[in-house]
Amino acid sequence: MSGTIDVNSDLGESFGQWRMGDDEQMLRAVSSANVACGFHGGDPTTMLETCRIAAASGVVIGAHPSFPDLVGFGRRHLKVSPAELAADTVYQLGALAGVATAASTAMRYVKPHGAMYAAVAADADLAEAFARAVAAFDSGLAVLGMPGSAVERAADAAGLRFVAEAFADRGYLADGTLAPRNQPGALVTDPEAAAVRVVRMLADGEVEAVGGGVVRIEAESVCVHGDTPGAVDIARAVRAALADAGVPVGAFA
Q: Which residues, in sequence order, are bridge partners of residue 6?
């Protein structure tokens, strides 16, 4: 196990009076922040505050676009056309890019959220639309996503850097996809268990699947979701375990 690993988190997802997670503490534990762009969470005030704290903390900012689904927190699979997905993506990238500039920082990468993440991982047409939208907006942006997925192939075809991601706090099925959140084993909330998983992922390139078996894993970045119960403790445990293993943490972008 060698080289630097990125630790990312989905942040800035509060909306109005509705609060999601402890962004300030998470921004002390991660190297990259996937900032919600208003479609599943996040509002202008939250986006600006998150970008400002990230910039002050030396954390790299990425956009976290979603299907337009505030009620479902972007986790419902909406039937959208490739053209709609592309337009929604560009709109959200523009919003975060402007907010980041006002916070004296810059957006460096894109990671789709929730159901959009799953859709572009599995559907070649949606993945191509997403990658082309990102490239049209800024071909220097990286795409963070599931390794071996449709979006990886689409990003490569669009000339974008693709960064493979693994999850500290989510269970994997035997086929390498994430276990649905309504299934047992979908969430890993014990900080020590999450930390052990991450070290195994990076050292051995594998993780135990829900229900048994082993899934091969490759990753340049590890995600701890900001809304997972105990997220701050999980992120801190992961950072401590990486330090003990001699793996430095640093942003990929």
A: 221
- Nearest alpha carbon to residue 197 among 246, 243, 252, 234: 234
Closest-CA residue to 211 (of 178, 184, 191): 184
Dihedral pair phi/psi, residue 42, rounded to 5°: 85, 140
Alpha helices in 138-230 (DSSP H): 150-157, 191-204
Question: Could you give the CA distance from residue 144 to residue 163 in angstroms, rounded to a whole number?
Answer: 5
Contact between residue 7 and residue 33 where contact means Cβ atoms under 8 Å apart: no
Q: Which of 115, 123, 208 is nearest to 170 (CA)?
A: 208
CA distance 136 to 158: 9
In the block, which residue shows the tokens 């919600």?
36
In the predicted model, what is the mean pLDDT of residues 167-173? 96
From the list 53, 40, 32, 34, the residue with the least C-alpha distance to 14 is 40
| C-beta neighbour count of 116 within 10 angstroms | 30
Q: Which residue has the tokens 């390139």?
A: 205
Predicted confidence (pLDDT) per residue in 18-61, tens digit: 999 999 999 999 999 999 999 999 999 999 999 999 999 999 99
pTM for the predicted model, two decimal places? 0.95
Task: Tell me the C-alpha to C-alpha distance, in Å, between residue 8 and each of 31, 63, 68.
Answer: 6, 12, 23
